[in-house]
Amino acid sequence: MERFYNIVNGRPVDSAEYFHSANPATGEKLGLVQQSTEEEVALAVEAAKAAQPAWAARTDSERGEFIQRVADVFQQNSAYLAEWVTREQGKPLGGVGPGQVPGSLFEIWACETWTRATAEIALPVDVVFEDANRRDEVHRKPYGVVAAVAPWNWPLMIAVWQIIPAIRAGNTVVIKPSEYTSIASLEMLRIIADVLPPGVINTVSGGGAVGAWLVENRDIAKIMFTGSNATGSRIAAVAARNIVPTTMELGGNDAAIVLPDADPRAVATGVFWGAFLNMGQTCAAIKRLYVHEALHDAVVDELKTLVEGALMGNGMAPGVMMGPVQNRPQYEKIKALVDDARARGATIVCGGNPIEGPGNFYPLTLVTDIEDGAPLVDEEQFGPVLPVLRYRDVEAAIESANRIDVGLGASVWGSDLARAYEVANRIEAGTVWINQHGAVHPMVPFGGVKRSGWGVEFGVEGLKSITQSRVISIGKPSA
Ligand code: NAD
Fold it and tell me: How many A from CA of 236 to the centre of ligand 1?
């Protein structure tokens, strides 16, 4: 069986232990991934530390050129990487552009797009104060070695969101991909590392213990974490002990509110993809849909038609729009939440029963006649199930949206933009979209509020967050 290696200081590492990565659509074993040891993690951090001063000493435009080369290799290896993402993560290959299913090819396109955009952002010296007596400048400096810990849902794109700004700013990186999607991630990181100086990007692989060794390492100067709240809390505790800054991109439970003046047909496609993109395994996906009672049945009907028209299967097959759930624990969690909703008397409009077979296939499921407080509404399902809640009063819908202790994204749908804006402005989330959901952009800061985390990624704000400010304060000679 093929083995996939980590890259440390530009070279593949050999490990004593390996684990299997499997295809969630078929159960087929795809290859062997290294189980990094504590010592191997320490060596990866050491390599990143040794490479960092020379990388930081390059000019900003030199680093920008390297990053452009990384964007080029995404373009050149798009088909190869997309195939690995589909085989290991499960999302369909899909395509890029209007009418295409946003699957693995879209993920690689996003990697390239974010990388190019980041290559073009600069953080010039900012003169924050100047008068006859003094001049004060803020310079943005890299932290040093950044630890990146990534999840399995968008394994390549989220890794890119972490590591490209980090190296753009002059940091070096050690990254640990999710144990569920290591092959696709390691293949991408190998290809990227090839066009960068040795040691700028280094990788380790394995489960939570390997991630813990990485973030605990005393040479880590900044932690970028994307994943669950439970793991985020553990990492935040380590960071507090070591006094290391963190960016925490954690879970959400995005509410979408369909206002009484919305056109059910016009909003249905956006709501469908907002909820079911990547089988609902997206941090900023619609996880609770609040629909005004006047439109409730019409919206549910439109969604049901779209759900029934979405072909589910192995993402390598043409025409497939929905793949499997990525892993068994996630599949079991979804199943338990739907079973609990059913037991509470909710209506399962479509789906609701797992599909037998070797893969982790769970049908797209719409659930109605369910209330706030039910676990399917209050917990992050992170899967292909959407609870639809009926409301009478917009004030009550806003209250429902805000009653949960996480706040990553949210959306408001309606025809009167001024009214939608007014509602959006009262929702407690890092991003509130109007008549769209999950529409992230490389120049627009993205991050959560409340227990969805802290810090932002993307654009100038995101790049700043991976640097530290240093002030040079010049006293002017008195005239
Ligand atoms: P997870 O927390 O289980 O795992 C994430 C990563 O952390 C994995 O690489 C894992 O091996 C590692 N890890 C586990 N224990 C660790 C420890 N003690 N120390 C260091 N690393 C450790 O999350 P997941 O299941 O992979 O991802 C799904 C979750 O991520 C969902 O809650 C989703 O909403 C969230 N998410 C958030 C964003 C965002 O931008 N806010 C984006 C994607 C996913």
Answer: 13
